Amino acid sequence: MNSRSTNKYLNRQSKLNQATPWVWLVLFALVVAFLGGSSRPDIPQIAVLRPLAALFLIPALYTMSFADLGRAKLLVWLTGLLLVWMAIQLIPLPPSLWQSLPGREVVSDLDRILAIDDTWRPISLVPSRGWNALASLIVPLSALLLALAMRANARMLLILVAGLGALDAMLGLLQVMGSQSSPLYYYAITNRGSPVGIFANENHSAAFSAVALLVIAYLGLTSREQREKAWLRLAYAPLFAVVLLSIVVSGSRAGFASGSLALVAACIMAWLAITQQEQTRKTGKMQTWLVEHPKLVLGAFVATIVVVLGAFVGMDRASGFDDTFSQNAFEDLRWSLFPVLQQMAGTYWGLGIGFGSFEEAYHIFEPTSVLMATYVNQAHNDWLQLVIEGGLPAIVMLGLLLLWVAKSLISMIGGPGKDAKRLLMFGFAFAIIAGSSLVDYPLRAPAFQAIAVWLLLSLSQFVVQSRLRAQPLAH
Predict the structure, then answer these.
(1) Which of 189, 376, 435, 457 is least surrounded by Cβ atoms within 10 Å, i.e. has the fewest?
(2) Contact at 8 Å (CB) between 139 and 449?
(3) First-last CA distance in the chain
(4) Please, are residues 215 and 161 in contact by the beta-carbon 8 Å criterion?
């Protein structure tokens, strides 16, 4: 083989090696997108999703090194601790110890009546749901380890999130264009007639669309400095429009509010990008004009958005907007549940009732005043549900994660990784997820769990990169 042939062979091998991470991560993303959009533990898709997610651990563990794990130490440790705590909640305890735990009086009384008060029971009130919750960790665990093993950088992970956001939005628009019996609604229990996209719940889809809007805006505004290919730079604008449109036609009040917040943040990011003086020297006449007239450019963009929103509202196609100002927004069931959730959290905050046990434990506290034809299977407040199910250990783990996120965001303000657009993107994205979790449970869906893991991991990668830049060169 001559030197020219050798070079061609090496070039092909290099391109294959560069493409390999994309192949694995895109395949995993598609599996999660089409099988992991529901939070229910009894859907048939789960039986396919979890084995497939486990298969992705094979390439992850085969190619991974300890150095890869070190790139996201806190995330790896917290995932491991969560797994251990969920397993501990399933270990049977002696009857005397179990009966002394808070909130077990009703079950203890029944045990005595049935003469089975010598039964060993775990912390989890519903062990079958606890085992299911433990098995559900396979999806976020695979998302984390696969991304680390493939050495995916922060931008690659954000592009994956943006791609899933575009897929969710386009599928959602196709769903509302068809009938409620459309096969594009591939979950048996779902919000038919709404743009649920890859999810079963319209609120989860709308919250993700708001996050995707931020990610797409950031990627588009920084694509030139990253020297991305022309087709990719051109794709961000139409993808932004598609995702925004899916939010507008959504029937989710929380999603519409989150989308509005994301749109404001995107406008601020655009303002910052346009007014950066460094770009003026690197652009042509048209780009220079855009830099020199940021108010006109941003004003035209905002005016276009307002006209589009006004058109949809005027044609009664923005149900989320209508619901926001309707009387029903103040009669929501979530307000009635809050006192009950507070009582449950006050009772079980120590060791929890076991992950996945909320639905059955809620029946113990359910007042007759909120009885209805439909049933409550989630708290619709994931912060309180985490306290109820996970107890103090889960609170500590969540606190550590929040402290790390806050520290990472603060480091972007004045540190070597200073980037206002990046700070806005991550700050608003996590704020939207946190806010949505106050009134709903988006992170209970496996697809959203994988997306959240990739957002956290991309934040971690940016922090690591910033620290490396700050280190002085060795002589």
Answers:
(1) 189
(2) yes
(3) 41
(4) yes
Distance separating alpha carbons of residues 328 and 318, to the nearest angstrom = 16
Could you report the per-residue pLDDT of 332-376, keeping only the tens digit for each? 667 778 888 999 999 999 999 999 999 888 988 888 766 666 677
Distance of alpha carbon 41 from alpha carbon 133, whole angstroms? 8
SS (H, E, C) 66-91: HHHHHHHHHHHHHHHHHHHHHHHCCC
Contacts of 187 (CB under 8 A, 6+ apart): 37, 38, 43, 45, 196, 200
Show the tokens assigned to 97: 């110890």
> Of 28, 19, 21, whose CA–CA distance to 150 is shortest?
21
Alpha carbon distance 409, 133 (integer Å): 30
Beta-bridge mates of residue 121: 93
Residue identified by tokens 């990627």 is: 219
Of 390, 449, 471, 423, the residue nearest 75 (C-alpha):
449
- Tokens at 67, concatenated: 């150095």
pLDDT at 468 over 90: no
| C-alpha pair distances (Å), 326 with each of 51, 253, 254 | 44, 10, 13
- As a whole number of angstroms, the distance between CA 336 and CA 192 comes to 25
Q: Residue 389 corresponds to which amino acid? A: E
């996201």: which residue's tokens?
72
Kindly report the number of other CB atoms within 10 A of residue 434's CB atom: 14
Question: How would DSSP label each residue in 353-406?
Answer: S-TT-HHHHHHHH--GGG--SS---S-S-HHHHHHHHHHHHHHHHHHHHHHHHH
- 289-344 residue pLDDT tens: 544 555 555 555 556 556 555 655 554 544 545 555 454 544 466 777 888 899 99
Q: Residues 114, 168: contact at Cβ < 8 Å?
A: no
Angle separating helix axes 446-470 and 420-439, nearest 10 degrees: 150
Q: Which amino acid is at 68?
A: D
Angle at 65 between CA 60 and CA 70, to 5 degrees: 105
**What is the spatial distance between Cα 185 and Cα 292, in angstroms, rounded to a whole number?**
47
